[in-house]
Amino acid sequence: MKSNVLLLDKIMSYIVKRKGKQMRPMFVFLSAGTTGVINESTYRGAALIELLHTASLVHDDVVDDANHRRGFFSINALWKNKIAVLVGDYLLSRGLLMSVENSDHELLAIVSNAVKEMSEGELLQIEKARKLDITESIYYEVVRQKTASLIASCCAVGASSVGSSNEVIAKMKEFGEKVGIAFQIKDDLFDYGKKKIGKPLGIDIKEKKMTLPLIYALQQSSWMEKRRIVNIIRNHSNKTRKVHEVIDYVKSTGGIEYAVEVMHQYFDQSTALLNSFPESDYKSSLKQLVKFTIEREK
User: Fold this and answer.
1) Most buried residue, 16, 51, 86, 287, by CB count within 10 Å?
2) Please, which residues bridge with residue 69 across strands?
3) Rounded to whole angstroms, how far apart are CA atoms 39 and 153?
């Protein structure tokens, strides 16, 4: 990540020092080990994924006008939006160049498709947020594209890097997609919790994001009740008292229990796919990582 541009070098150093859990590269390595023998291509695939993910986070903070990320100031907060957008572009291009230089064309194709889907998912969510008319089926489509596509590509990249067949790559991709949907539902549930988890409670409601617990609650509501809740989200989501009113409503209508149940369904489906592979330490670790995604506290 070294650069001759002093400003860029300084920002890259800041990014590297505040890296997160790096779960996505772990999915690459463990998927590769489950389906074959880890090699140099696997390392490049993991680096490509982490570069893409970091680029997407830098750009997301600009889109969301967020000043913090993982307890630190975001790039746009410290260096403004223009520089943050260019840094995100640089990160993405470094990953793409690394793949081209090493002829990792299959890995590049998998990851490029994930970038396309992530962009489509984000735009679909923005479009639907304006109308507040997201159905459960549209929610799953947004999540599949916006979040699950990247974890699916991690698993596909891992399998592809060790020379797996198209059938195995497709199976690992499906496994990653199921995990990704469970991961996002868990993230949605944090909005209704009591613990400090790096983002304020009710932030999704304040940002007018329709998540699974809320969608289910509205499905159970009378026309009048639904109208009242949607009106709060549309016109009063900047008021903490009103946001807590929505949170309490979702809890009282079983939205939390429903989302937990669906999350476990996706977890079970991902485990069933994983069980079709031979037993190994990598497979056991991958199971533990999937378990962590739905049991994590932040």
Assistant:
1) 51
2) 72
3) 18
Q: Which two tokens stand for residue 161?
A: 């890097």
Task: Give the CATH number, domain containing residue 161.
Answer: 1.10.600.10
Tokens linked to 2? 């070294």
Q: Who contacts 53 (Cβ-Cβ below 8 Å, separation ≥6)?
A: 24, 150
Segments of the chain scoring below 50 in pLDDT: 196-199
Residue-range definition of the domain harbouring residue 179? 19-272
pLDDT of residue 19: 67
pLDDT digits (tens, 9 = 90+) for 2-41: 777 888 888 777 777 776 678 889 999 999 999 999 999 9
Gap between the terminal Cα atoms of the chain: 28
Place of tokens 């793949």: 99
Distance CA 73, CA 66 (A): 9
pLDDT at 172: 95
218-230 pLDDT, tens digit each = 888 888 888 888 8
Does residue 93 sit within a domain?
yes
CA distances 153 to 26, 29, 48, 56, 87, Å, are 12, 12, 11, 14, 23
User: Who contacts 201 (Cβ-Cβ below 8 Å, separation ≥6)?
Assistant: 191, 192, 193, 194, 247
The confidence score (pLDDT) of residue 298 equals 63
The full 3-state SS of 85-141, as one line of letters, equals: HHHHHHHHHHHHHHHHHCCCHHHHHHHHHHHHHHHHHHHHHHHHHHHCCCCHHHHHH
Phi/psi zone of residue 67: left (φ > 0), alpha (ψ -120 to 50 degrees), beta?
A: alpha
Q: Residue with structure tokens 């300084």?
A: 10
Do residues 32 and 159 make contact, with C-beta atoms less than 8 angstroms apart?
yes
Asked whether residue 293 is assigned to any structural domain, the reply reads no
Rounded-to-integer distance, Cα 121 and Cα 108, Å: 20
What's CA 171's distance to the chain center, in Å? 20
